[in-house]
Each structure stands twice: as C-alpha cells, then as structure tokens.
Design brief:
Rossmann fold, 8 helices, 8 strands
Length: about 240
C-alpha cells in the first residue's frame, strides 16, 4: 500500500471487522440506517440526485450509495476498507440495485484519475476517521464538476460532543461500538469551513442532527453542536 495514503490502518481494520453487520438495521450500524433517510432527504432537496453522476467517498457498506442509486442516481462508492466494499457489492447484487458501482481507491487517487467528473460528491461520517481531512476535502473539490455540490457530515469537537457522541453514544447507550470516534480527530465547523474555502468550495448551507435517546428518534435541526452536515458548491467556471 502507498505509504503516503491518507488512511489509518487501525480505522480500516475497525470497519472491516464489522463489515458483515453493515446491513443489519439492529446492529452497531443502526444509527446509520436511521439517519440515512434524513441525510438523503436533505441532499435530494438541495440537488435532486436522479440522473446525476454521484460519488460517495468513504462509502463503507454502501448504505447511502445504495439509497442514492435507488433514487435514480448513477453512483460510484469508494472506500479503502476491503471487507466493507465486498459487503456493499454483495448487497447491491442481492437487492438488485441498479446504477451503483464500488471501487477500492482513495479520494486523492481518484481525483488524479477523474477530475471534475461528478455532479455531486458526498463524504459522510468519514473525515473524522482520516489522518488529514483537508486532503480529502481538496480531493472532493477536485472530483466535482464546476457548479456541482459537495456534501460533508462529521462531528463537532467540544465538551458537549464528547459527552453525547462518545460517552453517550458509545458507552452509555451503546449505539456505536466503543472506540468508534477519537475526540482529538473530531472537527469543528469553523475548521471544516476553512478546509472548504482553501479547496475552493463555497458553503451553501448547514444542518445539525439531534437524537432523543428516549424515543430513539433522530431529526435535522439548526443545532450543529454535535453532529452536523455541510452543503458546499464549486463555483461554475
């Protein structure tokens, strides 16, 4: 493997070990299944994906990529976790999902190979797992066509997010496997906004995501203090 690859082997191993559970809605990936309709709805509201060429960076087992393909998008999902990709491919076969393909390649490598090739790029719940998030943001900006959209979602870094996203979600409620997130790798919206500006992306809108442990319900809001999403655009030439 390329020594300069922007990936943490421990992070890849973590998700590969859980790969067989990606499509079990009651597994450790239950939160992803629950938030997926919210994420997809927000994306599709801003830029209807039907008929668009879409790239999902860090696609994992394909939960979002598969859903976008089912909306009529032509989707490529990329990841570096081999087992998770195999699960995504297997699910697409079993579910007979049309219009989705998967590749084991980094965003940076694909950016060199296919610059300005996609109408929409999504990079969800991935930036907090890589050594250099700014490199991924730059790659996403390179991959999207002028006038196209890039969506990011990640977790804020502050005492509240530590309490909710790590202590609460991983240890108290056990919504996620322990060790899923490292506090030091979480990203403040101001930091992500700076990465986007440096990559030539303009921030269009933001959304927060909240969770009620009693009703086990997620919803989108204006509160970006824990989970949040960015919609950015690459200026048209």
């Amino acid at each position: 493997m390329d020594k300069t690859l922007n990936a943490d082997p421990a992070e890849l191993a973590k998700f590969s070990d859980l790969a067989h559970r990606w499509w079990d809605p009651e597994s450790e990936f239950r939160p992803l299944h629950q938030i997926n309709p919210l994420r997809l709805g927000w994306i599709d509201q801003l830029v209807p994906v039907k008929g668009k060429r879409v790239l999902d960076v860090g696609c994992g087992g394909g939960i979002l990529a598969d859903a976008m393909a089912r909306k009529g998008a032509d989707v490529l999902g990329i990841d570096l976790a081999t087992k998770a990709l195999k699960v995504a491919q297997l699910h697409a076969l079993e579910a007979n999902t049309q219009g989705v393909a998967y590749r084991e390649v980094s965003a940076e490598e694909l950016a060199e190979e296919q610059p300005a090739s996609f109408d929409v790029v999504t990079c969800m719940e991935m930036l907090e797992h890589v050594p250099d998030p700014s490199s991924v943001v730059r790659a996403c900006a390179t991959l999207v066509k002028p006038g196209g959209w890039v969506f990011f979602s990640t977790i804020n870094r502050n005492p509240k997010s530590f309490l909710f996203a790590i202590v609460g979600a991983e240890y108290v409620l056990q919504l996620l496997p322990k060790g899923t997130h490292e506090y030091a790798k979480l990203i403040k919206p101001s930091e992500l906004a700076a990465h986007c500006r440096a990559a030539g992306l303009q921030l269009d809108s933001t959304r927060g995501m909240e969770y009620n442990p009693l009703t086990r319900r997620y919803w989108l809001s204006g509160d970006t203090s824990v989970n949040y999403m960015f919609a950015t655009r690459k200026p048209a030439e």
